[in-house]
Specification:
Layout (H helix, E strand, L loop, with lengths): L11 H16 L28 E5 L31 H6 L9 E3 L10 H8 L6 E5 L2 H4 L10 H18 L4 E4 L5 H8 L3 H9 L4 H4 L7 H26 L4 E3 L3 H4 L17 H15 L4
Parallel strand pairs: 1-2, 1-3, 3-4, 4-5
Helix pairs in contact: 3-5, 5-9
Length: about 300
């Protein structure tokens, strides 16, 4: 539809301590080992990523709400990749916390169908009261799925909204980890679904993601250029997600795992051929679990 951290180098403070001990033993003068008043303070150790967080809050859009995964035009959060409780879909929460009845008490889905990056900061404010150990973020599909190419959210605005979201999380939840999913490749979705006459009809009648899926059977140069422009914008969104997340020591971007995943028709909802099916939700959960549990 997974980026690991490199091992930390030996801290400068440790090297300085070794050098100091060697110097003092050679001179025998206690005053020689006294720290200089101009010496830089020891660096704080980088926080370690916990591969088994005990609680999860999810923010984002209709994908995380599992819209159209169970029934037409309805959210189905019980099969959400992030916080779902249905055993048919082994969600990230089930895999991390366990499949007991207490998952609902430690996993909260505050995503909203139809949400764009503009809505993310408010969602971030609302999760603070739950004090989750992990926050999952999936956003950007609706920012690219506009009425036309010119109406897509600008990269600057998208970046600003996500930056604000991370600032809110870090200010209110300083020790909470954040997993950020890449935006799915809408071009791949078009390529897969456009083979179905039913899919093309539903996309057109329901006006689903017109910037990419409108006139799905149009193979003209103009249509190809429009689709390429949408795909490029999605890639720019992903670059922004990676950049902003990369500045936070407790944030992990999926490295483009969702964007690059080669999904098939079975991963798409039978109702709209756009949102993930239950199998698609399971795949998203598996990709997320791989990232969250990866050792640094």
């Amino acid at each position: 539809m997974p980026a690991s951290r490199r091992p930390l180098a030996l801290p400068i403070a440790v090297l300085a301590l070794i050098a100091g001990c060697t110097s003092s033993s050679d001179s025998g003068d206690a005053s020689d080992s006294a720290p200089s008043p101009d010496a830089a303070p020891s660096a704080e150790p980088a926080p370690e990523w916990d591969t088994s967080p005990a609680s999860i809050a999810a923010i984002g859009d209709s994908i995380t709400r599992a819209f159209d995964a169970c029934s037409l035009l309805s959210d189905c959060p019980e099969v959400s990749w992030a916080t779902g409780t249905d055993s048919e879909v082994p969600s990230l929460a089930q895999q991390l916390i366990g499949d007991g009845t207490d998952i609902a008490d430690r996993a909260w889905n505050l995503a909203e169908s139809g949400a764009t990056a503009r809505d993310l900061p408010d969602q971030a404010r609302r999760i603070a009261g739950y004090e989750p150990e992990l926050v999952t973020v999936m956003i950007g599909g609706n920012d690219a799925c506009a009425a036309d190419v010119g109406s897509m959210t600008s990269v600057e605005d998208f970046t600003a909204h996500f930056t604000e979201t991370m600032d809110i999380i870090r200010a209110r939840l300083p020790e909470t980890q954040v997993y950020v999913s890449s935006v799915p490749d809408l071009m791949e979705l078009w390529s897969e679904g456009s083979r179905s006459r039913m899919a093309r009809t539903v996309w057109q009648v329901a006006s689903i993601c017109p910037s990419m899926l409108g006139d799905a059977d149009d193979d003209s140069a103009v249509a190809d250029e429009r689709r390429e422009a949408v795909r490029e914008r999605v890639q720019e969104y992903n670059e922004a997600l990676a950049d902003v997340c990369g500045r936070d020591e407790l944030c992990r971007y999926d490295g483009g795992a969702v964007f690059e995943y080669d999904f098939a028709a079975r991963h798409l909802s039978d109702f709209d051929w756009f949102h993930p099916s239950k199998e698609g939700q399971s795949t998203l959960a598996a990709l997320a679990y791989e990232q969250v549990t990866m050792a640094e």
